[in-house]
Amino acid sequence: MLLFRRKHIPRLLSAILSCQSLVSAFNTNCNSNYASYYGQNSARNQKSLGEYCKDSTEDLIVLAFMNGFPNILLNFANACETTFPDSALLHCPTIAQDIKFCQSKGKAVILSMGGASGAYGFSSDADGANFADTVWNMFFKGSSDQRPFDDAVLDGIDLDIEGGSPTGYASFIKKLRSHYSKDSDKQYYIAAAPQCPFPDAYLGSTLNTAWFDMVFVQFYNNYCGLNAYPGWFNFDEWDKWAKTNSINKDVRVFIGAPGSPSAASTGYVDGPALAKVFKSVRSQYSSLGGIMTWDVSQSRTSGLAKDIRTMLDNGGSCGNNTTTSPAPTYEVSDKVVITHQNYQDSS
Predict the structure, then answer these.
(1) What amino acid positions are annotated as catalytic residues?
(2) 3-state secondary structure of 124
(3) What residues form DSSP beta bridges with 195?
(4) For residues 287 and 31, is the Cβ–Cβ distance under 8 A?
(5) Is the overall model pTM greater than 0.90, yes or no?
(6) How far is CA 339 from CA 23, 197, 287, in A?
(7) What is the C-alpha separation between 236 and 326, in angstroms, rounded?
(8) 273 lies in which domain range?
(9) Domain presence at residue 277
(10) Residuewise pLDDT in 10s, the chain (347 residues)
(11) Which N-terminal residues, if any, form the signal peptide (predicted)?
């Protein structure tokens, strides 16, 4: 039996709580975060959001998708099918309660805008800024007659832009962050989900001109996917972007992975192969924030989620991006770019 002097107990408790936060709570200063998309039922066995938050596997849940804007349309497959009266806008009280439950477990919940299909985009910078007001009122601490998640307050927004023009997104982010700054009681985030070819075809300019806290790079469905490691796998380019071009020099870059072989056309690697890539990236690039999977129904069913939690907890660390890693430059314009697979199953 180990005995501790009374004066050391507070220090011990602090250390224990610090370790617990590393494995069970989202923290952008750490490289051990696990983010996963929820809402598209891509494995055809999607559970409620709350079910996935009962354990400590994921740290951040990305609700997918707001696939229509500025005229808002939401799609969460079988997780929500009710609408407000005389409206096509989803009203999701069950997801609302689950958001609050997930947050009570130390997890962050953000909403993804875009996806591989949908009708979205801005015609001007003013449209983007105005829409930020709408988003704040409907999903954060503003006020609106129609709030899809009732009184639940999200932790941020993700831009998974896979079509259209880049117009308006930087203005949208700037205005939304101005709303964020008025609430000092809560930490809010801006994320993006670019495809791995660099620069991203749709968000490239926005990534260089707007603030992002994290990027979930889709290392699948493209030549630079996880299955191309170590050859064309290009985390080095994204690390270089984080250190040199990003406005936020502490932006975190996540390794985006398919949750199972059926979650993407190409790019899936099993747990041991992903662990090898992750260990290599973590040893070289301080911008690493963790791993993202598409999507939680796939990664939980395949067992990859459990493997990811184990590899993240094995040697994770927290701190700012302070080192610089060299990265080669080469042309990628002749490569094929394929998008997220966006399932919309309402069964």
Answers:
(1) 162
(2) coil
(3) 218
(4) no
(5) no
(6) 31, 11, 24
(7) 7
(8) 29-313
(9) yes
(10) 333 343 444 444 444 344 443 334 799 999 999 999 999 999 999 999 999 999 999 999 999 999 999 999 999 999 999 999 999 999 999 999 999 999 999 999 999 999 998 899 999 999 999 999 999 999 999 999 999 999 999 999 999 999 999 999 999 999 999 999 999 999 999 999 999 999 999 999 999 999 999 999 999 999 999 999 999 999 999 999 999 999 999 999 999 999 999 999 999 999 999 999 999 999 999 999 999 999 999 999 999 999 999 999 998 888 876 443 333 333 333 333 444 554 444 33
(11) 1-25
Assigned token pair, 64: 């997918």
Domain presence at residue 180 = yes
ω into 295 cis (within 30 of 0) = yes
The Cα diameter of the chain in Å comes to: 68
Q: How far is CA 116 from the centre of its chain?
A: 15
Q: Provide the domain count of the chain.
A: 1
CATH classification at residue 183: 3.20.20.80
**Displacement of CA 40 from its chain's centroid (Å):** 15
